[in-house]
Amino acid sequence: MIAVHRLTHPNDDLYLNPDQVQMIEGTPDTVVTLTNGSKFILAERPEHVADLVRQWRASILAEASLVRARPDLRIVE
Fold first, then answer.
1. Quick one: DSSP state of residue 21?
2. What total of structural domains would you count in the chain?
3. Considering 20, 22, 45, 52, which has the largest number of Cβ atoms within 10 A of its Cβ?
4. How far is CA 26 from CA 3, 44, 46, 47, 77, in A?
5. Residues 56, 47, 21, 23: what is their CA dihedral angle, to the nearest 10 degrees?
6. Is residue 24 assigned to a domain?
7. What is the chain's pLDDT, residue by residue, as a tens digit (77 residues)?
8. Do 46 and 30 meet the contact criterion of CB atoms below 8 Å apart?
9. Contact at 8 Å (CB) between 16 and 2?
10. Is the pTM above the cut of 0.70?
11. 1 three-class SS
12. Residue 54 lies in a domain
């Protein structure tokens, strides 16, 4: 999940699943559309949201590489 902020509630975190992000627009406010059609107007710039999604995906790949490189490591829930 990535933490962003609604334009109308800048002090409250809104956690989005990056896998559900379909589109990010700057119109001039940042509008994120999810795959289910939900839309959120965010305080962050579109470039920042895209960077958060990239960082999140990179962290997933890095974690998978670590587990693959070290089969003795196991993820405990």
1. E
2. 1
3. 52
4. 18, 10, 6, 9, 38
5. -160
6. yes
7. 999 999 999 999 999 999 999 999 999 999 999 999 999 999 999 999 999 999 999 999 888 887 666 666 666 65
8. yes
9. yes
10. yes
11. coil
12. yes
Residue 76 inside a domain? The answer is no
Cα separation of 76 and 57, whole Å?
21
Between the alpha carbon of residue 13 and those of residues 24, 29, 31, 70, the distances in Å are: 18, 18, 16, 34
28 part of a folded domain: yes
Classify burial at 30, counting beta carbons within 10 Å of its beta carbon; exposed 0-12, middle 13-18, buried 19 or more. buried
Residue 35 is encoded by which pair of tokens? 């795959």
Identify the DSSP state of 35. T
Q: CB-based contacts of 33: which residues, under 8 Å, 6+ apart?
A: 21, 22, 23, 24, 25, 39
